[in-house]
Amino acid sequence: MARPALLALLTALLVGRATCQMTMTMAEAPPGGAGRTPAPAATAGRRVVCPSLPAPGPSVKRFSLTAAKIQSKTQTLAYNGTAVGPLIRIRLGDEVQIDVTNKDIPEGTSVHWHGQAGPAGTMWYHSHTGEQYGDGLRGPLIVDDPADPHKGLHDTDLDAHVLMLADVYDTTVAQQLKDLESGGMGAMAAAGGLPDAQSMGGVPEQPQGPMGKMQVLCPPEVLNQDLSDSPWYGVQVNGQGWVTDPKTMQRAGQPLVLTVEQGKRHRLRLIGGMSSWALRVGVQGHGLKLIALDGRPVRPADAKSLLLTSGERADVVLHADQPVGNYWMDVSTISGQNSPVIVHYKGAPDPLGDKGFLATARADTGCAVGSPQILDLKNATLRAGPGLPQPPKGANKQFTIYLPDASSTVPPRSFLTHIAKAGNVHGLAPGSIPARGPSCPPAADGQPGKYCWSLNWNVYEPPSTVALLPGAKAAPRTYNLELSEGDVVDLLLINPSLMVHPMHLHGTGFWVLATGNGAAANSTDMLAPGVALNLADPPLRDTVPVPQAVAAPAGGKMGGMAGTTELAPGGFGFAILRFRATNPGVWSFHCHIELHASSGMFMTLTTRPKSNGTWALPDNLLCA
Fold first, then answer.
1. 63 and 158 share a domain?
2. What is d(CA 606, CA 422) in angstroms, rounded to the nearest whole number?
3. Do 363 and 483 have their domain in common?
4. In this structure, are 209 and 313 located in the same domain?
5. Which of these, 242, 236, 189, 254, lies nearest to 213 by C-alpha position?
6. In this structure, are 135 and 177 located in the same domain?
7. H/E stretch holding 355
8. Residues 343 and 281 placed together within one structural domain of the fold
9. Residue 447 shares a structural domain with residue 558
10. Distance of alpha carbon 602 from alpha carbon 600, whole angstroms
């Protein structure tokens, strides 16, 4: 019997003061995708109730989200007036209605149910309009599965142990983007990494003193990568944390207190709600056991700490096997800036009233590069957990996508040769690339370029309409891959930059067959023979951190890139993904670092249904 598909609203556009009601059924979906119900547009002052949606019955679970401006030092927008949106926790099989209201955001807003294409597990929701989620529009979404294969590995799974990690700033992400676009890549020095200001992203560390007074902990020859295009300000967990004003050096706020019970195994659900910085999480004196990624089970893996990038979710088990007391959970960057959480054992003294304990908080955790105790998800050998399907043994379509800074990075000659031909492996129309746009001219040799990240040197420009119907024309710089329902698709992602890019696909999950550094593509940009692929039990995910290129300390050029560093042995970073195109629709694929997506590191994949590749407009697209 066919399994029921998830009817999930993935994005709702709300303009002016408007409310949209949306219903979704949390049902088991086929691996790799499920159906979805598109959202109606809401006009100012109107409540939109789509006639194709059934009236909610008594068993429907209802939630309300109000997106609005707030006055706060570290965020300008919020759901329901709180630092983190309310927890939406439901069970597989539940029918859910969520009423979303835009109170006073003039440019409109939207809600993306991140990861919700069918599976149970740890998800989240956030705005997908402009740079709004980095300014505060984000919250946790948990779908519990009574048949969770790992439920025997933990004793508790509490709401209070759902942890939303977020980097916070005293300027809006939109203002950061404006500053970067006006200053270009030359406005940024590497974040504790390469000393020259011509690297491909990253910002300087702020020299500080104890707890909030950071030292530069990763020498350039050790770090050898860029960490963030956003300036460091602070991190909060569930809206709480110490933040130090870099101008006054005054510390404000307080750490989150996470209560555990001695002897019990506690499931912690970590959500990477950061807009820029990757964060390392570890509990002093304790180990962690990873049991799920992006809502899907993985074979349990032990580690002292793990590294999480934007958009990823990790479920870990913390065994409270130490003496009753208070312990620090470090939540820190790779280069060591720390915004810790307190792990409080029941029966221990109140940690917030213990000045002696608070004085032991670490301002820095040391350089995290190369530590064997850190589970780095971009290159860890992870296996799928029980109950997940194997990937198909082969694919009928393959696309190769480079992840460059479009201004400073010169496309390889082989790439330009390939895209001149129709049907190329990049899915590009002949002669369409490089499509940098007027704000992203190529940099002069040896000079920093403009700030414009891209996919295959296409700086994405959102179209006013999506070219779905026959005869429709795409907007300039719109980058779309055409798929047919049932296709098995391989994506070879090649990262020539010195930043890790967490790439996120809407509408379906994908198997991560391989990640690493080296020559993953042959001379025609197809997958090179000899690249080891895990076809037996690869993890099934919706977000993958693509490793940065390996750079040598000597100056020079990286594979023809102006103004960057010489490529070391090991080469470009890569990730190889495989998925089934079972979910008809237009799906976004983008870097989840908000500045990168907003500057152009974005594209779409259109999966056309089997019925002649066309579809009728659903009633609920016409009801507004």
1. no
2. 18
3. no
4. yes
5. 242
6. no
7. helix 355-358
8. yes
9. yes
10. 5
d(CA 213, CA 438) in angstroms, rounded, equals 41
Residues 262/346, Cβ–Cβ less than 8 Å:
yes
Residue 624 lies in a domain: no
Residues 136 and 181 in one domain: no
Which tokens hold the place of 35?
């159906």
Q: Helix, strand or coil for residue 366?
A: coil
For residue 13, tell me if it sits in a domain. no
Look up residue 202 and give its two tokens. 């990253």
What tens digit of pLDDT does each residue of 497-545 get? 999 999 999 999 999 999 998 889 988 899 998 899 999 999 999 999 9
- Asked which of 388, 420, 453 is the last residue of a domain, the reply is 388
The last residue of one of the domains, among 371, 388, 405, is 388
| Burial tier of 372 (Cβ tally within 10 Å: 0-12, 13-18, 19+) | exposed
CATH code, domain carrying 501: 2.60.40.420
At 465, list the tokens.
């309409």
Per-residue pLDDT reduced to its tens digit, 309-327: 999 999 999 999 999 999 9
Question: Which two tokens mark 419?
Answer: 């895209």
Statement to judge: residues 326 and 433 lie in one domain = no
CA distances in angstroms from 85 to 68, 71, 119, 442, listed in the order given = 11, 16, 21, 41
Peptide linkage before 30 cis (omega within 30 of 0)? no
Which class for 213: exposed (0-12), middle (13-18), buried (19 or more C-beta within 10 A)? Answer: middle
Question: Which residues on adjacent β-strands are paired with residue 260?
Answer: 345
Q: Do 45 and 29 form a contact (C-beta atoms < 8 A)?
A: no
Which residues span the domain enclosing 74? 18-147
Within-domain flag for 493: yes
* DSSP string across 270-323: EEE--SS--EEEEETT--EEEEEETTEEEEEEEESEEEE-TT-EEEEEEE--S-
Phi-psi map region of 118: left, alpha, beta (phi>0 left; psi -120 to 50 alpha): left
d(CA 372, CA 355): 33
Q: What is the pLDDT of residues 209-234, one digit of tens each?
A: 333 333 445 666 567 788 999 988 99
pLDDT of res. 184: 61
The burial of 299, by beta-carbon neighbours within 10 Å (0-12 exposed, 13-18 middle, 19 or more buried), is given as: middle
Residue 6 included in any domain: no
Alpha carbons 486 and 493: distance in angstroms, whole number:
22
Query: Read out DSSP for 94-127?
Result: -EEEEEEEE-S-TT-B--EEET-SS--EEEEEE-
Tokens of 148: 């969770």
Q: Indicate the pTM of the whole model.
A: 0.87
Concatenated DSSP letters for 5-35? PPB---B--B-SSEEEEEEEE-----TT---
Sheet bearing 251-252, strands edge to edge: 251-252, 243-244, 234-237, 162-168, 265-272, 313-319, 288-293, 296-303
| Eight-state DSSP code of residue 325 | S
Alpha-carbon radius of gyration of the chain: 23
Number of domains present in the structure of the chain: 3
Q: How far is 421 from 172, CA to CA, in rounded Å?
A: 42
Whole-number Å distance between alpha carbons of 429 and 321: 59
